[in-house]
Amino acid sequence: MDINELLEPFARMLDTAAAPALVRAVEGGASAAPMWQELLESGFLDALVAEDKGGAGLSLGDIEPLIEALGARAVPLPVAETMVARALLADAGLAAPDGPIALATSATSGQMVVCALVAAHVLVDTGAELILADIADLIVTPTGVHHALAARVAWTGRPQGQSLPRPAHGLRRIAALLRAALIAGAAGRLIEMTTAYANERVQFGKPIGRQQALQQNLAVIAEDAISARLAAQLGCAGGPTGSLVAAATAKAMTSAVVARIAATAHAVHGAIGVSEEYDLQLLTRRLHEWRLADGSEGYWHKVIGEARLADPAGSIDWVRNAVFA
Amino acid sequence: MFDTLTLASLSPEDEALRPQIRAFLSRHLDGLPLDRRARSWQGFDADFSRKLGAAGFLGQTLPKEYGGGELGPFARFVIVEELLSAGAPVAAHWIADRQSAPLILNYGTEEQRRKYIPAICRGEALFCIGMSEPGSGSDLASIRTRADRTDKGWVVNGQKNWTTHAMHSDYMIALLRTSGTIADRQAGLSQLIIDLKAPGVTVRPIVDLNGDAHFAEVFFENVELGPDALIGTEGEGWKQVTAELAFERSGPERIYSSVVLLDAWIAHLQSVGRTDAHGLVGRLMTELAALRAMSIACTARLVLGESPVVEASIVKDRGTTFEQELPMAIGDDLAAHPDEVVSDDLHRALLYVTHIAPSFSLRGGTREILRGIIARGMGLR
User: Fold this and answer.
1) How far is A203 from chain B (nearest CA, A)?
2) ipTM above 0.90?
3) Fold identical between B128-235 and B240-377?
């Protein structure tokens, strides 16, 4: 199946359902229910659910472009997370609730969970099992970061809720892949916005995009974005049973390019880029949030390095087997 | 942006070549010391190249009709990946196999194809590329060396510089001015095949900072060539060179130049049992994996018959940045443990790569030129 047949209608739906003004409204505290209702009715939330269980039976590799599309629009809901959660629930023979499901990838109570403020449920990885907890049964504390939808999620004892089997390497491996694809999508959009702005903005009598200094910097972040996209695609191609190192590579590569892409995008835009009314900040704030979520590059580099040093193979062989297999 | 660079993979048929080339390399490279292997694609051994040709490992992308394997760019990717991983001395056949033969196939006459390509596939015709001149480096369109038409063909006068392995090569494919003046820039340039044994050709090797002589200056004094020296169309040299550079810039050699050093360092970490380098090792492996995906994605464009000029520039710029970072990061790690003994082999390989690394982002187009090409590809200027 050609994913573009799905990507176009999905992207079109997001362009209206999650237009920048609506993203801002949700971040500002307005209800996300209308946006969620459109996503729910679109049927895309069951993209990963097996066909015999009523879903589309797609793989994570198949839908990677859809996750990029979510990232490119800074969609303020845990859409990719819900897709994964609904597939895990279906595999376990459990019915999925209608609302958004966030992922808690650490067994530690009090951890930061992306999109917790707009989630109806949190799928918690306790290290032994997954528990689908109703948000009302958890202690959710906003962080105080302006317009952030991530929040601290805590519980006492064992979280309340239905139990389902924990996949190999837990939720963190899967969440890492989702974050990687989201970052790749947002990074690609940032490069487009920044290139367009550099061609429009005139200083010294010509578009600033004609300055070699800018061109060199923009070329570097374009390379960063391509590295991120390929690493995300490579990781997601491994699917739900892919190797930990492939997922680690995806999250580490995408997280590692965030700082430079965001910095250059802001530098080129100048002051307007940090203003609330301009869309750039919707994407750069997400990039930083996703980089820090579910293990930064520093966390995943160590995972990769430890696996590498435990293997006597040459580096090209090792990479082929651990990441590309 | 650059959506053509998307995930691609090697086929099982291409992968099937891997055990064969491995078996060949283990027979022919046994005992080659680390600092020789660290020279990677700078290492010159004509005998080794002939053996590779005889075993059928050259010319994978070329038609069988001309002695090639007709397997395509991904087959070459697998062979090259194994050659570089092993640190094989590939310089003798490298340029001919990578870009001269495809250039002759694309633009040459039937006679030229039959004359050169089978010999290249046997590892017997060694080529160099005459681009840079004393006054023309990054500004390649400013070259002055001329080829003028005569009754019998062409006469060449001028000088090329920094020509890789010119002193060992049989032929040079040179970019020359065949009409107009340097004010005409890209117009009036053509590519000619020059027999380096022709009277009037003088080649002087240039010794580098490691004591190696891998490049040379080449003088042409009334060098007479036949009419069949012209390759492709007169006046189309710039366009042909641009397409040729896509081959030169896209290959895995642009990400693997320092991989022998990387492996030696990892073996060192394993042998001393150090566990404080996990983060650095992981960072380097991450970049290596992403670059491999990028290089395979670029090769997929070659498979489709495209000339991925911008994509190849992206791979080369990113790849050489990684290749240059390796010796710096490894040097810092080793010297951050002054009480740890480092073998002479590893020390020599480290310093060899440290010293030669600046050339990685010069040869085949400088970093700044490549980033200009990428910026244009993004729609800037």
Assistant:
1) 14
2) yes
3) no
Do A315 and B283 count as a contact with CB atoms less than 8 A apart? no
Asked whether B254 and B316 are in contact (CB, 8 A), the reply is yes
Mutate to test the interface with B, among A214, A255, A304, A306 (most CBs of B within 10 A): A304
Residues in A 190-209 with any Cβ partner in B closer than 8 A: 191-192, 195, 198-199, 209
Check pLDDT > 90 for residue A101.
Answer: yes
Domain with residues B12-125, CATH architecture:
Orthogonal Bundle (1.10)
When CB atoms are compared, the residue of A234, A249, A312 closest to B7 is A234
Strands A130-134 and A121-125, bridge-based pairing: antiparallel
Are B269 and A309 within 8 A, CB to CB?
yes
pTM above 0.90, yes or no: yes
* A324 interfaces chain B, CB cutoff of 8 Å: yes
Angle (CA) B194-B196-B199 rounded to 5° is 100
Which class would CATH give A4-164? Answer: mainly alpha
Mean pLDDT of A114-135: 98
Vertex B316 angle, CA B314 and B320, to 5°: 125
Tokens 């994605």 locate to B297
Nearest-CB residue to B381 (from A210, A301, A306): A210
CA angle (B221, B226, B229) in 5-degree steps: 90
The domain limits of chain B are 12-125, 128-235, 240-377
Give domain limits for chain A: 4-164, 170-324
Chain A residues within 8 A of B380 when measuring between CB atoms: 195, 198-199, 209-210, 214-215, 218
Chain A closest CA to B44's CA: distance in Å? 23
- Closest CB from A219, A300, A306 relative to B371: A219
Token pair of B223 as six digits: 């060098």
Q: How far apart are CA A264 and CA B24, in angstroms?
A: 47
Measured CA distances, A17 to A139, A199, A221, B234 (Å): 29, 29, 29, 57
Per the CB < 8 A criterion, the answer to whether B322 and B261 are in contact is no
What one-character-per-residue DSSP string does A4-38 give? HHHHHHHHHHHHHHT-HHHHHHHHTT---HHHHHH
Give the whole-angstrom CA distance, residue B189 versus residue A279: 48
Q: What is the mean pLDDT of each run of 10 residues along chain B (381 residues)?
A: 90 95 94 89 93 95 96 94 94 95 96 98 97 94 96 97 96 97 94 98 96 95 97 96 84 88 97 97 98 95 90 95 97 97 96 96 93 96 73
